Amino acid sequence: MSPVLDIQGVSVRRGRKNLLDDVTWSVAEDERWVVLGPNGAGKTTLLQIAAARLHPTVGSVQILDETLGAVDVFELRPRIGLCSNALASSMPVGERALDMVVTAAYGVTGRWREEYERLDERRAFELLNSWGVGTLFDRTFSTLSEGERKRVQIARALMTDPELLLLDEPGAGLDLAGRESLVHRTAELVAAEEAPTTVLVTHHLEEIPPGFTHVLLLREGRTVAQGPIREVLTSENLSTTFDIPLQLHEREGRFSAFATTG
Ligand SMILES: Nc1ncnc2c1ncn2[C@@H]1O[C@H](COP(=O)(O)OP(=O)(O)OP(=O)(O)O)[C@@H](O)[C@H]1O
């Protein structure tokens, strides 16, 4: 079976800076990946490529058996669910939560026609419900709390029943209860038989839901290590990635890390 995502020798240059530098990464259908790294490591840039929203300066990218650069990205994008702050900020001011989800089915942001298919509205409502924000369907997105917005964004990402789900820092800005609830809900999502191949970007080990199988560690646009989470997520690799001595802890499938020196 060919990989869902196959990135070979990818670099992204802006001026004299390499946002990504010779990254090779392959994601198989039944894998759930975490992309971990410090601020500015290139995580969002990598996810934008995986989402067919950015082309590399160098290298080749295959997404869902299509070649980036040769495929019509407007046909490819509905097969990829993306939850990111950049996408949320591109939503028109005044967009209702329900419209924010339903418009994903049409590959647009912003309600652009009066009537949507009843079936699409029902699916959007069910998704909002399953993420615990069904009662907020009529609220303007901008009036929602950070945690509520994150749930609406994930519902939107799932609207097209994507084959590849990309979550860019879904836990950012959430309080402890919000983070825990998101972690557990995401763990349930990826454990389901029909779950899409999932990639989660984060800076925080506590945000890795149980059930994630692989990890890619990025630093300054380069891969520090990648592979099965049990082999690659080590104190040594984390220390190299974040450039401070770190001690990794694991308990019941959850991770945390602390600096070993002040
Ligand atoms: N258009 C651009 N021109 C120049 N530099 C850019 C551009 N876009 C991003 N960068 C830089 O590229 C680097 C990688 O950015 P990216 O957003 O991919 O990192 P990240 O790992 O997601 O960071 P964070 O964890 O802070 O969100 C950063 O140093 C950023 O400032």
TrEMBL record:
Keywords of this entry: ATP-binding, Nucleotide-binding, Transport
Domain annotation ABC transporter: ranges: 5-245
SMART domains: AAA
GO (cellular component) term, any one: membrane
Signal peptide: none
GO molecular function: ATP binding; ATP hydrolysis activity; transmembrane transporter activity
Pfam families: ABC_tran
InterPro entries recorded: AAA+_ATPase, ABC_transporter-like_ATP-bd, ABC_transpr_CbiO/EcfA_su, P-loop_NTPase
Domain of life: Bacteria
Protein name as it appears in the record: Iron complex transport system ATP-binding protein
